[in-house]
Design brief:
Keywords: NADP, Oxidoreductase. InterPro entries: Ald_DH/histidinol_DH, Ald_DH_C, Ald_DH_N, Aldehyde_DH_dom, ALDH_GabD1-like, GABD/Sad-like. It comes from Kitasatospora atroaurantiaca. This is Succinate-semialdehyde dehydrogenase/glutarate-semialdehyde dehydrogenase. The protein has helices spanning about 20-40, 45-60, 60-75, 75-100, 110-115, 140-150, 165-180, 195-200, 215-225, 250-260, 280-295, 315-330, 385-395, 410-420, 450-455, and strands spanning about 5, 10-15, 120-125, 130-135, 155-160, 185-190, 205-210, 230-235, 240-245, 270-275, 330-335, 355-360, 375-385, 400, 405, 425, 440, 445, 460-465. It is built from 15 helices and 19 strands. The chain folds into 2 domains: about 5-235 and about 445-465, Aldehyde Dehydrogenase, Chain A, domain 1 (3-Layer(aba) Sandwich), CATH 3.40.605.10; about 240-435, Aldehyde Dehydrogenase, Chain A, domain 2. Strands 11-12-13-10-9-15-16 form a 7-stranded mixed beta sheet, sandwiched between helices. It has a 6-stranded mixed beta sheet with strand order 6-5-4-7-8-18, with helices on both faces.
Length: about 475
Amino acid sequence: MPIATVNPATGETLETFQPLDRDALEVRLARAEAAFRDYRTTGFEHRAELLRRAADVMDAYQDQLARTVTTEMGKPLAQAKAETAKCAKALRWYADHGAALIADELPGEGDVADSGATAAYVRYRPLGPVLAVMPWNFPLWQVIRFAAPALMAGNVGLLKHASNVPRTALALEELFHRAGAPEGVFQTLLIGTDAVGDVIRDDRVVAVTLTGSEGAGRAVAAAAGDALKKTVMELGGSDPFVVLPSADLTAAVRTAVRARTQNNGQSCIAAKRFIVHSDVYPRFAVEFADAMSALRVGDPMDAETEIGPLATRQGRDDLAALVADALAHGATAEAGGLHSGGPELSDVSGGWYYPPTVLTNITPEMRIHHEEAFGPVATLYRVNSLDEAIALANDSPYGLSSNVWTTEPAEQERCVRDIEAGGVFFNGMTASHPALPFGGVKRSGYGRELNAHGIREFCNVTTVWLGHI
């Protein structure tokens, strides 16, 4: 795949980039190794100040960064600005809390004595250069949620970003440069997918984190496993959105639309499968389909636009194929369901648009029942009990997060116990926050980002034991 900025609203190629050759890549890897030797010895307050300055730079350049993101991957400009603000918040959060999250841990006095030591403690030490293989859908946030904890822990970062967001990737490197990061502490590698394996196998790279597709995760994890290197994987998701009889239906419908269409529907943690109890299904189904149909699709730079184009032509075509397969096998389109809905949504304008769509009468032989729909397409199911809802929620190869609408404590506890996912969000939509661990189970990956769990993923958890003299 060429490294290029292509505007998904028009299909126009705006700029192309030459990938790093072997010599240029070697310079950057050597620079990362040298930077780590010094950066790992800096104190927490020094690292915290770097993150705070990076947050200040992000605030100062918010409009420019947001326009770069929207131009490259098509999300509405207001959402791109919100993503930028969220990144600044995460940088400041780790600056404020990071030192405490990886402070020395002391075991109980009795355990120390029982081990035969005069003193013992656990220290979290940085590992070294960490490679981040990141996706285009949240091209700022996905990177910052790796970089903030990694740099706060004393590691240095190497970013291999998605090939369709090179301007954003370079802007992130410039962000840390403007913040005063020492040379080599955070670098962007403009390389193709075919070069990633060699970087992973390089002895100077100590670990890898990836957010992306299941296929990409398998390839990166295999290369890292062969080299015996630590990995964190955040892969696909097909999150359930369960609505039970006690739900506030007005709020549930409003949130369901936002949960399915955030980022033009291109989010791993977007709700995708809407599982509704029969007692409230008729009203929910009508109001949800009407609200999805009413969304304004158009130019993502227009402040009135609610749904922009999909990021790539291939992504749009893959989504259309999933819907076509479902319709061919008996699904009903309650909203949308077409390849395009008029000249403004078709290839006539050069953009890669797809209308917000709601499908019912889904059956297991349809691809969309088990595959992730990466775009504004919702599948709607009717169930007759909580047992049936949980079984359907778990009938997926993915387990990233989940949303459940109920005010009944017993139902909430049952869902926490039985839904197979890395998160259960009640009466709201799944969202990531620096204070909360983020990650999934099953084919949604392993390991956690954010919170204390995220900063500790790339630390050497070191036991320090002092004997009697």
